[in-house]
Amino acid sequence: MTSLVELRGARASLGGREVLTGVDMTLERGEIVTIVGPNGSGKSTLMRLIIGAVPLQGGSLTRAPGLRIGYVPQKLQIDPTLPLSVRRFLSLPARVSDAAAAEALEHAGGTGLEQRQMADLSGGQFQRVLLARALLTRPDLLILDEATQGLDQPGSARFYRLIEQLRQELGCGVLMVSHELHVVMAASDRVLCLNGHVCCEGAPEHVASAPEYRALFGSGTQGALALYRHQHDHDHGVACDHDHDHGHAHHDHHDHGSHSDA
Amino acid sequence: MTTGMRITTTTTMEATPMLDDFLVRAALAGLGVGLAAAPLGCLVVWRRMAYFGDATAHAAILGVALSLAFDMSIFTGVLVIALSMAMLVSTLSGKGYAMDTLLGVMAHSAIAFGLVAVSFVSGVRIDLMAYLFGDILAVGKTDLLVIWGGAAMVLVLLVWRWQALLTATLSPDLARASGINPERERLVLTLALALVVAVAIKVVGTLLIAAMLLIPAAAARPFARTPEAMALIAAVFGGVSALGGLQASLWFDTPTGPSVVCLAALIFLGASFIDLLRRGLSAQAK
Ligand SMILES: Nc1ncnc2c1ncn2[C@@H]1O[C@H](COP(=O)(O)OP(=O)(O)OP(=O)(O)O)[C@@H](O)[C@H]1O
Ligand SMILES: [Mg+2]
Fold it and tell me: A83 and A57, same structural domain?
């Protein structure tokens, strides 16, 4: 089975500045991968590179042929001069039946919003509608850029359950960006820590203990992770493609230096 | 300026006698432009391209000079220049220039150079006013054919690309993710804009084409809950402005192009007033 997306040494520049420098990444069908990284580390740029909105400056990007992508952008500003009901928004760019629209909304927890104007929605409702639209394309790959921003606690929990359920129903791959580190760790198969380049990647508990990750997020996040780690403390392969003085992350390894700007 | 125009009209007396009446031709010409400009105007408004419309429309006067110099039809000359200008502006905006200043510079230089060029080419032979403010009463049968042909092309183009245009307008990234190329949609829009400019110059003139794009669309906004509704309402307003403006120009013996735009502006005023009233009422109800 071919990968949904494969990046090899991918580079991207925005406004004349190199934002992504040599990113390697693969995404398989039915896999949930989360990108973590500080603000401005190029997470959104990576998503936009994959959907084709940012040109590839070097390296390679391979998408499975005929790949259908459901994309939830980090922000979407709707011009106030554009009247747009939720129902109409769901029919962009492909028209969908009322039944399909209602089902997608229900899936995403936005039942009954059809007749509302997009501009009148609350932040959380807006997010749910964006997700509903992404689901309507029956995607092979869901790309979610901080899709839980503005969702209330139950909404967020429900969201991650939904992602899990969709992966099983549709068999789609999921690539998401999140800052909710503790939730991410429990909800993903693989975590990729990004800071202009891939600092480290692998199963969540390994990334959490990788020095590169700690250098970026500090050990403050360890508290939240401890619980998770204790329950899942068995070995997964971890790939830290970082040519430092070590090739692997060890659990007893402590912070060394920082990675700050790439 | 209404009476002089009638004489210059060359009418070939054949078939469809209805079209022999210059007023019927004028009405049809106005209607064609109003109907095509309004939906396109909606897209221009949504995409915040108002100045873009201005620059393209103003360049049309350069197209007139070109047509006179090379003895082409006005339509061809204007289409070529409007298309070049629209492409230029579109490319520059894609490259992230500070657009408002640059567009202002281009819009005004285009009209200045155009006027100078026209005076070089023609001496005093032509009536500049006709190109600046339109000359709807002088619309001949061929003009009518060109106007309706152009308007139909614009409408077909918009209907055909509507879903993609709308998605790309909403967000280029969402468009990309769905396999739509926003650059291509911008090209479609550019082409439609140039076409509207080329057919509208005879009706409302260079200076007021952008008004026919913007005003009906702006007036339609408060009454619409979907993009399609806004485009339809704008088309109705555009059509009503064209016909009503023509009628008013006959009643008050005023220049037709400006009269059409005046009516559109009045409709906008009325629409804004109704919107304000409605908001006031709904605020009180709470
Ligand atoms: N359109 C743009 N033009 C120029 N630079 C940009 C543009 N968009 C983003 N950048 C820069 O690229 C870098 C990466 O931005 P990106 O949006 O990918 O970060 P991010 O990891 O998604 O951050 P956040 O967590 O805040 O969403 C940042 O330094 C940002 O300033
Ligand atoms: Mg981001």
Answer: no
Give the Å distance between the CA of B186 and the centre of ligand 2.
26
Q: What is the CATH number of the domain that holds A58?
A: 3.40.50.300
The percentage of chain B sitting over the pLDDT mark of 70, rounded to a whole number, equals 90
Q: What is the ipTM of this complex?
A: 0.83
CB contact under 8 Å between B176 and A92, yes or no, is: no
Retrieve residue A178's tokens: 């999140």
Give tens-digit pLDDT for B8-55.
444 444 455 677 788 899 999 999 999 999 999 999 999 988 778 888
* Ligand 1 site-directed mutation target among A14, A39, A144, most atoms within 8 Å of CB: A14
Question: Which residues in chain A are closer than 8 Å to B171, comparing Cβ atoms?
Answer: 73, 76
Fold of B22-276: ABC transporter involved in vitamin B12 uptake, BtuC (1.10.3470)
Where is the domain boundary, A138, A172, A188? A138
State the CB neighbour count (10 A cutoff) for residue B270.
11
Could you state, in order of their start, the residue ranges of all structural domains in chain B?
22-276
Q: What is the pTM of this model?
A: 0.83
Residue ranges of the alpha helices (H) in chain B?
2-8, 22-46, 50-70, 74-94, 99-122, 128-133, 141-170, 172-177, 182-200, 209-220, 227-252, 256-285
DSSP character at residue B203:
T
A92, A115, A142, A145: best mutation site toward chain B, by most B Cβ within 10 Å? A92
The residues facing A176 across adjacent strands are A34, A144
* A22 belongs to a structural domain: yes
Q: Please report whether residue A47 resides in a domain.
A: yes
Minimal-distance CA residue to ligand 1 atom 16: A42
